[in-house]
Amino acid sequence: MEEYNISHLDALEAEAIHIFREVAAEFERPVILFSGGKDSILLVHLALKAFRPGKFPFPIMHVDTGHNFPEVINFRNNLVNKIGERLVVASVEEAIEKGIATQLPGVVSRNKLQSPTLVHAIEENKFDSCFGGGRRDEEKARAKERIYSHRDAFGGWDPKNQRPELWNLYNAKLAPDENMRIFPISNWTEMDVWQYIKREDIELPPIYFTHKRDVFERDGQLLPACEYLPLKSGEKVETRDVRFRTVGCMVVSGAVESRAETVDDIIAEVAAARISERGGRADDKGSEAAMEERKKEGYF
Questions:
Q1: Burial of 171 from C-beta contacts in 10 A (0-12 / 13-18 / 19+)
Q2: Where is 77: in which H helix or E strand?
Q3: Which of 177, 208, 264, 275 is the most buried (most CB within 10 A)?
Q4: Quick one: 165 and 213 in the same domain?
Q5: How would DSSP label each residue in 91-126?
Q6: What is the pLDDT of residues 162-192, one digit of tens each?
Q7: Does the pLDDT of residue 89 top 90, yes or no?
Q8: Are residues 24 and 152 in the same domain?
Q9: How many structural domains does the chain have?
Q10: Claim to verify: residue 88 and residue 24 sit in the same structural domain
């Protein structure tokens, strides 16, 4: 009898597709959270595999900080138009104007403002489950979280009150106003994602590959020169060959010097890296506790 073997990427893909279909069957109003980064682009690709030739049984939602890379916004719009799915934009700028989120004086980053904006958008659209691109190798707070992450009526996560997930059985029960965050690629690593992107030939925003960009150094990181980031005394803008390992708000996304022009080049870089992917986020550095607190407040 011929032995049947599947690759680890096939197994990860099958698990993710199973999770997408389980959520579509169990919940009434799911949504994909989309940042324009590679993990959320991967989620859209997996959803296409799960539901085509039919339409998605849910929309795509982007929590827009207003401090986004223009290349990422262009990519988002082109992708949504290409696949013909519905896009919901939850604007942090509008949340500030309406008093839903508060920008503290002197704080440039809007990452913390994504939480109240997201929680409000979930309530407004009556979403009961949200797909996110979290992976357990990103940082320690995310490693504590299950695939089905129960959230209370305020979007909060309690790491001490998680539900068991035995034999791929997921507890989808919710009380009124509660919701679930779902992480179909929890068991993927950064390397798995890049290997799968190569295998599937998935298109990405150009900032993931080497390009010339004006940057400046702050606290050991190369940050993009932009209108949202005033320079401090002694800081100098230089043009360098860089790329971004992780894509978020411009004011906190650190670049890395790189000559990686292809996915193969990036895979080689990831294999040699000794700093985690989110080590390039200025607001995440060295702060497992801070990330955990943000998740308790409704963060992705």
A1: middle
A2: helix 70-83
A3: 208
A4: no
A5: EHHHHHHTTSS-PPTT----GGGHHHHHHHHHHHHT
A6: 888 888 888 889 988 889 999 999 999 999 9
A7: yes
A8: yes
A9: 2
A10: yes
Asked whether residue 245 falls in the same domain as residue 185, the answer is no
Average pLDDT over the chain, rounded to an integer:
89
Contact 104, 112 (CB under 8 A): no
| 221 and 178 share one domain | no
Residue with tokens 């993710």: 16
- Give the Å distances, CA to CA, from 146 to 132, 163, 190: 12, 8, 18
Span of 11-25, 39-53, 68-82, 139-153 with lowest mean pLDDT = 139-153
CB 117 within 8 A of CB 92: yes
Give the pLDDT of residue 166.
82
What's the domain range around 151? Answer: 8-192+288-296
- pLDDT at residue 286 greater than cutoff 50: no
Percent of the chain's residues with pLDDT above 70 = 89
E strands within 207-295? 211-218, 221-224, 238-243, 256-257
Q: What is the CATH number of the domain that holds 44?
A: 3.40.50.620
Q: Does one domain contain both 210 and 82?
A: no
Coil, strand or helix at 265: helix
Rounded to the nearest 10°, the torsion over CA 112, 115, 118, 120 is: -120
Element (H, E) at 129: strand 129-131
- Measure the CA–CA gap between 64 and 93, rounded to whole angstroms: 8
